[in-house]
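#random but structural
TW: two for the price of one
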Amino acid sequence: MTIDPKTVMLIVEDHDFQRRPLARMLHSLGIVDVLEAANGREAIGIIRSAPRPPEIVLSDLDMPEMDGMAFIHCLGEAKSGLGVIIISALDPVLLGSVAKMADAYGVHLLGVIEKPVTREHLVQLLTGHRTADRTPPPVRPAPPAFGWQEIRAGIANREFEPFFQPKIEMSSGRVLGAEALARWRHPTRGIVAPYAFILELERHKDIDALTFLMLEKAAHSCRDWLAAGFDLTVSVNLSLTSLADTSLAERIIACVKGTGLKPKYMVLEITETAALTELAPALENLTRLRMHGFGLSIDDYGTGFASMQQLARVPFTELKIDQGFVTGCARNRAAHIIVQASLALARGLGLKAVAEGIETAEDWDTLKAAGCDIAQ
């Protein structure tokens, strides 16, 4: 275990009998400079005035004058880039909420420790800290100002391509397929992400132009995988706004079969983040697609409208649990319970369950143990 002894640390805790043993623990780990503050307001003053400002802050939450949440808020507004460890005796559910709050404010959270602090847990969090981690995350640039006509011209020129994200069977580690994610290979702007063009296409009710280009290109790729000996499926997103047109299913069937791919190798993902307003034509389209062998997936499950109703009405074959519940579910009790309930629902309905956003081995192990079928 290596911790740079030159690292300056700040303990923010209002009780002397807890602050001082923690300082001694840090000294025993080789840390020379350990600063102390009794609340958030005092800590802000130390950060601003110390000859060598702290690089890591260990902060309690329940403190007088300025509590830990207000302190974290201030650090986020200041874009300080400090590494923060939350130390508290509060309920783990509350600590999980504070951790998400810190992330939302842009604070570099190293972790959460429940009191009493153990040397082992503290070492684990400090060992994972690196100087590069203290750099504030880059601000996401505003979407490029693409107009509908420019986007439409890009589609006509076939500049949009599928980028593939693998779907892995959790029990075996075998790749089962991939989801096609639309990206614009712009001639002057490089690779452009979906947030720069999806909303504009939907606003002009022209999302089908992109959908059918993705269907065609994804189907060609999947056909090539099969020809090379890989038994894989491909998933393509289908906007709910398209389902009001009763000719949609026949057009999709003709498009995919025209590439030489059998429909059984394609899964159509329907997001539930929009309300299903045109029920009859949507059910007609989705049922026809299912009859011809396409898989149907309900995407971002748990984040949108009338989830239970859609599952009862539509012949889905797959349920995708949103990454907002999956990421960190091993340590977040509420997220873990929601994931378990979603998996039980999928099993009861005979659907394959897909977890999006697995980022750690700990989350992988938790989901695998809970019986999740597929990881993406």
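TW: number two ↓
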Amino acid sequence: KVVDAHNGELSVSAATDRGNGAVYHNGEKMVISFFSNRDAYIKVYHIDVNGKMKLIFPNKYYSDNFVRKETLVQIPGRNYPFAFVLGKPYGTEFIKVIASTTQFKDIEKSFKDLGKATKGLMVRGLTIKQKKGDLAETLIRYTIVK
């Protein structure tokens, strides 16, 4: 089962093409897959080895962040005009996927340094309630080696 949601609450899960905790070598490409149990809008953040955070989806190459329920989505997809190529600095990095039943009011500029990710952002609960819709999030990790 990809998503285990209770009482119809929004739930999202994600993984790299090699699974959570995967190891990639310098220059290899990575694909991120995610799945939501309800129609949702998605934001995906990259948190590098140094804790710097960037919005990587939606982005300037693919701005449509709406996904249909129970549809496995891969970014970049086969027809996307970009790839995620891994490199220095080496070490453990994170991908944060956030799903919302309503469109986000704040979509940061893609690939722009958003500053240091706080511990609270990285480890807060997987599901919280918003006033105008549901919000769910998940965190995956991977390691880049030489």
